[in-house]
Amino acid sequence: xxxxxxxxxxxxxxxxxxxxxxxxxxxxxxxxxxxxxxxxxxxxxxxxxxxxxxxxxxxxxxxxxxxxxxxxxxxxxxxxxxxxxxxxxxxxxxxxxxxxxxxxxxxxxxxxxxxxxxxxxxxxxxxxxxxxxxxxxxxxxxxxxxxxxxxxxxxxxxxxxxxxxxxxxxxxxxxxxxxxxxxxxxxxxxxxxxxxxxxxxxxxxxxxxxxxxxxxxxxxxxxxxxxxxxxxxxxxxxxxxxxxxxxxxxxxxxxxxxxxxxxxxxxxxxxxxxxxxxxxxxxxxxxxxxxxxxxxxxxxxxxxxxxxxxxxxxxxxxxxxxxxxxxxxxxxx
Length: 333
Fold this sequence. Notes:
Blueprint (H helix, E strand, L loop, with lengths): L1 H23 L18 E12 L3 E12 L14 H13 L8 H14 L2 E2 L5 E2 L5 E10 L10 E8 L5 E16 L3 E12 L14 H13 L8 H14 L2 E2 L5 E2 L5 E10 L10 E7 L19 H23 L1
Antiparallel strand pairs: 1-2, 2-5, 3-4, 5-6, 6-7, 7-8, 8-11, 9-10, 11-12
Helix pairs in contact: 1-6
């Protein structure tokens, strides 16, 4: 009698195990049938390399224009695409006739992007282009070559404009230390790149809100030369540098200090340590980004609502079955 009861319990337990697995195991998903409609994202770019310009003295720049087209451009009229040489000619005329040669490159670039997205662009076809009607965004990158304005530091301005509903500008600036020799962990050579994204609306009321980058360059050079602990990991050096740049006043030759945390949304320093540095034939890099006004996110704990894996449920069932069998054996003994 006891054996029959035990067998009945075993059958019931197996039935429960497999019925739970049947509920949990998902049914096969039907194959996805793609629609006949294709979603296309289109963009266009062109460059003006080694462009000579009289701005802040003699300068040579590489200028790149990139724009993302609106969805569906050319669907009803292929002439909606602008013929890019007309835009290139407009830019050339803008640069040649730019009125203020002493403007920061950031301001020149911002003014160029603003004009491209808000003013009619004349063409040789007897019509004007209105780029704001055909692009979702437009970006101009200006790379100023070392030696321009007698400054042997490569630097870059990048401005992205989003035309509608109201012109929105995203601005950034970067500069580089190339083949910088340093005494850290022995003899080392690094490339160091600093880039920062400006706050929205910078320079709108006062163009001098833009920091003059050589002051920051000099601050970094002094920081590296006087760094107190030569054995620190490069990650620690970089972290300390970014922290200093965003929390400490930066002296200038103008008689006042810069406070970068007030004019940038983020600042990134990349240190590429060249192979052979410290006697190690391996290239390596550290990258640190600082967000001066960022607050730590508070993430509330989320209660688990997940369903256990079928194999886990089956394993629990087997364990329970083994326990029941051991109990049955003890009872029989």
